[in-house]
C-alpha cells in the first residue's frame, strides 16, 4: 500500500503538455517519481520553455509537434520509439475548442476540433501501441488516459457544437479502446475536467469567483486536483479502473441542481 501512487521508473508522454491541464499532469507525474516525461505542443518555443520549467521536478523532454494529423501522430510515435524501448503512460490531452452561433458555425471550426479532440487520440494510441504493449504486464499495465470534458457529459449553454460532440465522442471512444486493449494489459481511461484556469478555459481563469459560485464545491479546480486524478489512474492505485471516465469538476456534472457554463 505504501507505494500505491508511485510512478517510479515509468516513462510518460503528455500531449498538449506545455500549459494548462497537460502541464499540471506532467508536473504531477514528475513529482511522483516518473523517470521521464515527454511533453508535446504545436508551438516549439512554448513547449521548450515548459519542459525547462518542469525539469526542476525531474527529467522533462520537449517534442514540439502538430498532432492534428495522422502523420503528426506517427512522427511522435517514431520519435519516442527512437528514444525508448517502451512507454508506460500516454496522456491524450492536446485539444481545441470553437464557439460560434448555430447559423454561422464554420466547417473549419468543426474539422479542427474533431480532428484534434477525437481523431488524434485514436491514431496516436494506435501508433504508440507497440511501445505501450512492450511496457504492459499483468503486474503493471500500461496506461492510456484521455482528457475529455464535462461538456461531454452534460450541456454547457455556450454554443460550442463541435467541442461538445468531440468530448462526448472521446468518452465513448475511451470505452471502445479499453475493450480492445485490455487484452494487451493496456488500461484505457479518461478524465473529464470541469473549470480549471487555463488558456482553453478563460472563463475559469479570468472570472474564477463567478465560476466558483455556481460550482457545488464553491471553487475552481487547482493544479493538484488534476494532477491527483491523473496520478491515481496512471499508478498502481488505478490499475483496476478500465474504460471509465472520472469527472474532476467540483460536482458540476453529477451534483449540481443548476449547472451553468464551466
Structure description:
The protein is α/β, with parallel strands linked by helices and 262 residues long. It has one domain (11-248): Rossmann fold. The chain contains eight helices and seven strands; from the N terminus they run βαβαβαβαβαβαααβ. It has helices at 20-31, 44-54, 70-83, 107-135, 161-181, 202-206, 208-213, 223-234; strands spanning 11-14, 36-39, 59-62, 89-92, 142-147, 186-193, 245-248. Strand 5, helix 5 (161-181) and strand 6 form a beta-alpha-beta unit.
From the structure above, extract its key features.
262 residues; Rossmann fold; alpha/beta
Note the overall shape. globular
How would you write the strand order of the largest sheet?
3-2-1-4-5-6-7
- Tell me the Rg in angstroms: 17 Å
What's the domain count?
Answer: 1
- Taking pLDDT < 50 over at least 5 consecutive residues as the criterion, the unreliable ranges are none
Q: How much β-strand is present in the residues?
A: 5-15%
The CATH topology label is: Rossmann fold
- Note the main sheet: 7 strands, parallel
| Order of SSEs | EHEHEHEHEHEHHHE
Number of strands: 7
How many distinct helices? Answer: 8
CATH architecture: 3-Layer(aba) Sandwich
What is the distance, rounded to the nearest whole angstrom, between the alpha carbons of the first and last residues?
36 Å
Q: Mean pLDDT, as a whole number?
A: 94
CATH superfamily annotation: NAD(P)-binding Rossmann-like Domain
Structural classification: alpha/beta
Fraction of residues in H or I helices: 40-55%
- CATH class (first level) name: Alpha Beta
Amino acid at each position: 500500500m505504501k507505494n500505491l501512487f508511485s510512478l517510479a521508473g515509468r516513462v510518460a508522454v503528455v500531449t498538449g503538455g506545455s500549459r494548462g491541464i497537460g502541464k499540471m499532469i506532467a508536473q504531477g507525474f514528475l513529482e511522483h517519481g516518473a523517470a521521464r516525461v515527454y511533453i508535446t505542443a504545436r508551438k516549439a518555443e512554448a513547449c521548450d520553455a515548459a519542459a525547462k520549467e518542469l525539469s526542476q521536478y525531474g527529467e522533462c523532454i520537449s517534442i514540439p509537434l502538430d498532432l492534428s494529423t495522422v502523420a503528426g501522430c506517427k512522427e511522435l510515435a517514431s520519435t519516442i520509439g527512437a528514444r525508448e524501448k517502451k512507454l508506460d503512460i500516454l496522456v491524450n490531452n492536446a485539444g481545441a475548442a470553437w464557439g460560434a452561433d448555430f447559423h454561422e458555425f464554420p466547417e473549419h471550426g468543426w474539422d479542427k476540433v474533431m480532428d484534434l479532440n477525437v481523431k488524434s487520440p485514436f491514431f496516436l494510441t494506435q501508433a504508440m501501441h507497440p511501445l505501450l504493449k512492450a511496457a504492459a504486464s499483468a503486474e503493471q499495465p500500461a496506461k492510456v488516459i484521455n482528457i475529455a470534458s464535462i461538456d461531454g457529459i452534460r450541456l454547457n449553454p455556450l454554443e460550442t457544437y463541435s467541442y461538445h460532440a468531440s468530448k462526448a465522442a472521446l468518452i465513448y471512444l475511451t470505452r471502445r479502446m479499453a475493450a480492445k486493449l485490455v487484452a494487451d494489459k493496456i488500461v484505457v481511461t479518461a478524465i473529464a475536467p470541469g473549470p480549471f484556469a487555463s488558456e482553453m478555459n478563460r472563463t475559469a481563469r479570468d472570472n474564477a469567483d463567478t465560476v466558483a459560485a455556481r460550482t457545488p464545491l464553491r471553487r475552481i479546480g487547482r493544479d493538484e486536483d488534476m494532477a491527483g486524478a491523473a496520478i491515481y489512474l496512471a499508478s498502481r492505485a488505478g490499475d483496476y479502473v478500465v474504460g471509465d471516465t472520472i469527472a474532476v469538476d467540483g460536482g458540476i456534472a453529477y451534483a449540481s441542481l443548476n449547472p451553468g457554463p464551466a
